[in-house]
Specification:
mainly alpha
Length: 238
């Protein structure tokens, strides 16, 4: 946390520099090479995090829509209808992939060959594996959001410490703690802090939101597995 006594110093220094193009880009341009590298790294992590969040949320929206359509088609279709045709019409649907795995397992292991109970269990296991695999694919790159949320504040803190260190070095070199000597390093430190928080906060929020969507999709797939086995296997083999 910045000491209250530092804020007036920084404000005064920024006002003094206002006539000399003391904007944020100018402050970044005047920063040390290390601070610039920290800011570039944080900017890259932030941009990639936003790209991942945008891509995943769009994909989850498509999955939700196609899951709902596939489930409606499955429930209204005849019990003997082929799931493959419905699955081809909903290529992104997790439920379609799950149902297709169940049908393939049921066709591969007939009741006459393995028994009713074994066929029931084999189909359910195949559907569980297919659902887990589909959810894992949806989870790709989401872990980067958690990494950014955890690491970005510390990277920003590293830039903050560097800026403060620069201020102390300037004080030692010039033998005074005047406004012109201290303020540039403090401003450089605060910019790094803000950049770290700006990268971390949206990433943490986005990560938690994506996890919530993935839980909903996984829970829906688990419920559908039970429904599929009851409607397509249990009802026909009882």
């Amino acid at each position: 946390m910045v000491m209250p006594s530092v804020l007036p110093v920084l404000t005064s220094w920024l006002m003094l520099r206002a006539g000399a193009a003391a904007s944020i880009p100018q402050l970044i341009s005047d920063a040390s090479l290390f601070s610039k590298a920290v800011l570039v790294l944080l900017a890259g992590m932030s941009v990639y995090s936003w790209a991942v969040l945008w891509d995943r949320l769009r994909l989850y929206g498509r999955v939700r829509v196609q899951d709902a359509r596939f489930l409606q088609a499955f429930r209204t279709a005849e019990s003997a209808s082929d799931v493959r045709m419905m699955a081809m019409q909903h290529p992104v649907s997790v439920l379609a992939k799950t149902a297709l795995a169940g049908q393939k397992a049921a066709e591969q292991h007939t009741a006459e060959a393995v028994g009713v109970a074994a066929r029931f269990e084999l189909a359910q296991r195949a559907m569980d594996r297919a659902a887990d695999e589909a959810v894992n694919q949806l989870e790709r790159h989401v872990g980067f959001l958690a990494t950014t949320g955890s690491v970005a504040p510390f990277i920003g803190l590293m830039g903050t410490v560097w800026g403060v260190m620069v201020s102390f070095v300037n004080i030692g070199a010039q033998g005074s703690a005047t406004l012109v000597v201290v303020a540039p390093g403090i401003a450089e430190a605060l910019i790094a802090t803000i950049a770290g928080l700006a990268a971390a906060i949206p990433s943490v929020i986005g990560y938690n939101h994506c996890l919530g969507k993935l839980r909903e999709i996984g829970h829906g797939a688990a419920q559908f597995t039970s429904e599929y086995v009851d409607r397509r296997l249990g009802a026909r083999l009882s």
